[in-house]
Amino acid sequence: MDPVSERLLSILGGHVSTINARLILSRALREARLGTDEIGERALPKLIPLVERAAALFVAGESMGRLRAELKREIRDKARKVAACRLSVLSERDVSEARLLGRRMCEEMGARGFSLQKISTAVSELARNIISYTSGGSIELVPHVDPPPPRIVIRASDSGPGIANLEEVLSGRYRSKTGLGRGLAGTRRLVDRFDIKTGADGTRIEAEVQL
Amino acid sequence: MIRDADNRIPAIRLRDVLLVPLQGEIGDETAAQLSDDVLRLVQSSGVRGLVLDITGLWMVDSHLCALLSRLAAAASLMGARTVLCGMKSDIALTLQTMGLDLAAATALTLEDALAMLGFAVVHAGVDEETEEPFDEDEEEMR
Question: Cα–Cα distance between B5 and A210 in angstroms, integer?
Fold first, then answer.
């Protein structure tokens, strides 16, 4: 049997009988649409929430709390291995690439739902600004697990002319002719931390989202 | 059929409604083609309603939001009412947090959207009592 299944079975085995542990795992695998030959480290973040849900049918109370914590630790261990990445943003294709990178990093770190949306959308907005207003720049995604809470830092930098009307743009009053002019203001509202430095030699934005 | 390198968006005519299911990654080229083709179809077919089904979109940012709003506004100028449906809860929460407005009527599901445009759902010859789907999964776990 593959090491990931064995690991999950041994965690489940601390709370339920072997046969139920196998039932839980096979149900989770079926829901994840993964064959037994596809289970690797990569599948873990996707699998664990499903294992947790299936286990809730068999485990209750304090034992379920402990099981949740153990599964969470597995995700943390996996998330620690996720590496930072950097992407040049020069064209619209890179914007698309950047948000897909953001989504993948979230998935690898076990983030789903709203946090995944926040990261991907923020990356998309910042990358879009780079191609709309400058001749090019880059997006860097840096995962942090320790100290908690787990989070992803997005760094956008460009060597464009800077944002002259920063205050107006961040207030959300600004309207661009192409979009809503709300990308930057919206991003600031969306993320947990937002720092911006802009000047004649370019713009640097750092945004952090907790997972 | 609207297409560019790796994306195709079909537009489906359903009586006097045009149904456009958006999905996957929508690049700028696809987006421009989409607006163009949809508005052309609205004009040539004289449909009275336009449904933008975004069930298949995994993300909506301010750019895409603006595109959808513009499309709805343009269709409305041509006499077609636009209803947007299928928005996932996380996307709705994201747009709301960012303070972005969508200038289009919205419905939760495609069925609701069609109902808003005057379609009535009739179950022809199907007894609702016996229609309950049997969930194998649940049964097996008990």
Answer: 35
Cross-chain Cβ contact B90/A124 below 8 Å: no
Query: What ranges in chain A are assigned the alpha helix state H?
Result: 3-13, 18-31, 44-55, 61-79, 92-108, 113-133, 166-171, 183-190
To test the contact with chain B by mutation, choose from A119, A121, A210 the residue with the greatest count of B C-beta atoms within 10 A, namely A121
SS3 A177: coil
Chains A & B: contacts with CB separation below 8 Å: 76
Cβ contacts (< 8 Å) between A99 and chain B: which residues?
A: 59, 61
State CA B123 to chain mean position distance: 23
Interface predicted TM-score (ipTM) of this complex, two decimals: 0.81
Instruction: Give, in order, the Cα–Cα distances in Å from B131 to each of A20, A27, B111, B127, B134.
Output: 32, 26, 18, 6, 9
Question: Which among A111, A122, A46 has a CA at the least distance from the CA of B97?
Answer: A122
Contact A27 B141 (CB under 8 A): yes
Q: Each residue of B90-140: pLDDT tens digit?
A: 999 999 999 988 888 999 999 999 999 988 878 777 555 555 555 545 444
Is residue A144 a contact partner of residue A151, using CB atoms and an 8 Å limit?
Answer: yes
What does pTM read for this prediction? 0.82
